[in-house]
């Protein structure tokens, strides 16, 4: 289960986005050009700048350092999240191996299944609140109605299943998860999914690439090539039986509810660890 910390941080991101949007609107070039300080105001500003002192700047540094230290102590003394035990249990029992580089937002779970190389990728930056997902769902439904709905091929978006009463005033969080399956000499398929708070994976798109490198798009050339490729239709336009078989395809390879519980718990833990490291680095810089 996702902790309240994860939900709160996602909600905070939404408020920050809205605030930044308002600031950009307020500071539009037209408004900036419409006001210029008079000579007297400019003189007053210049005089005020002359009275600023170095000790005042040092005081700000000291206050900032103290606040960073306070936050660092709080984070280190906070009790271990209940999801930590679930993380250990999952990794000890799972066929997947964890790949996590300190300082990186992305995390990978990798395994071999028969002749397949499977890589599951998620990120601390891949969180979307249900409110944001609703906007995507509107386009999701519009695209589906144009083709799939006329043939009865409808698929419910994960955010449609979320009961707002279950999460109170907090908006539940959707996690973007990519699953890449590669086979020697046969290329790779990339299944783009969304993970809802109940631990269910919902496939959004299935793309085919001639090589694993092209699927990952690590180089500029691969990224350019990706943009020019036809990678398959929207998932909702596929036959319902085909959709169901792709769902089973994921489960057979271990992309299941157990992983669906592990991922948000691990994101929460990693985000806390990275935040502590960030506090330490900034504190050293300010000191």
From TrEMBL:
Gene3D superfamilies for this protein: Mitochondrial glycoprotein (3.10.280.10)
InterPro entries: MAM33, MAM33_sf
GO biological process: cytosolic ribosome assembly
Gene Ontology, cellular component aspect: mitochondrial matrix
Highest taxon above the source species: Eukaryota
Segments for region (Disordered): 144-167
PANTHER family: COMPLEMENT COMPONENT 1, COMPLEMENT COMPONENT 1 Q SUBCOMPONENT-BINDING PROTEIN, MITOCHONDRIAL
Name by which UniProt lists this protein: Regulatory protein suaprga1
Organism, as annotated: Elsinoe ampelina
Highest classification ranks of the organism: Eukaryota, Fungi, Dikarya, Ascomycota, Pezizomycotina
């Amino acid at each position: 289960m996702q902790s309240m910390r994860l939900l709160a941080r996602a909600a905070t991101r939404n408020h920050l986005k809205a605030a930044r949007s308002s600031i950009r609107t307020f500071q539009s070039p037209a408004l900036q050009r419409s006001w210029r300080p008079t000579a007297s105001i400019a003189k007053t500003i210049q005089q005020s700048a002359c009275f600023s002192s170095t000790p005042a700047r040092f005081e700000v540094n000291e206050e900032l350092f103290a606040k960073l230290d306070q936050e660092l102590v709080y984070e280190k003394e906070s009790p271990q999240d209940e999801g930590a035990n679930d993380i250990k249990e999952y990794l000890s029992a799972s066929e997947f191996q964890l790949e996590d580089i300190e300082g990186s937002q992305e995390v990978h779970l990798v395994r071999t299944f028969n002749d397949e190389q499977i890589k599951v990728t998620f990120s601390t930056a891949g969180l979307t609140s249900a409110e944001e997902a609703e906007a995507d769902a509107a386009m999701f439904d519009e695209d589906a109605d144009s083709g799939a709905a006329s043939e009865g091929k409808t698929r419910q978006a994960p955010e449609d299943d979320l009961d707002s009463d279950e999460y109170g005033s907090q908006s539940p969080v959707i996690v973007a998860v990519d699953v890449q399956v590669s086979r020697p000499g046969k290329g790779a398929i990339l299944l783009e999914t969304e993970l809802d708070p109940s631990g269910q994976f919902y496939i959004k798109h299935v793309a085919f690439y001639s090589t694993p490198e092209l699927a990952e798009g690590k180089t500029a050339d691969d990224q350019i090539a990706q943009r020019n490729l036809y990678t398959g239709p929207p998932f909702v336009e596929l036959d319902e039986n085909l959709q169901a078989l792709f769902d089973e395809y994921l489960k057979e390879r271990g992309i299941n509810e157990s992983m669906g519980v592990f991922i948000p718990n691990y994101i929460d833990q990693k985000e806390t660890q990275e935040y502590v490291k960030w506090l330490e680095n900034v504190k050293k810089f300010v000191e």
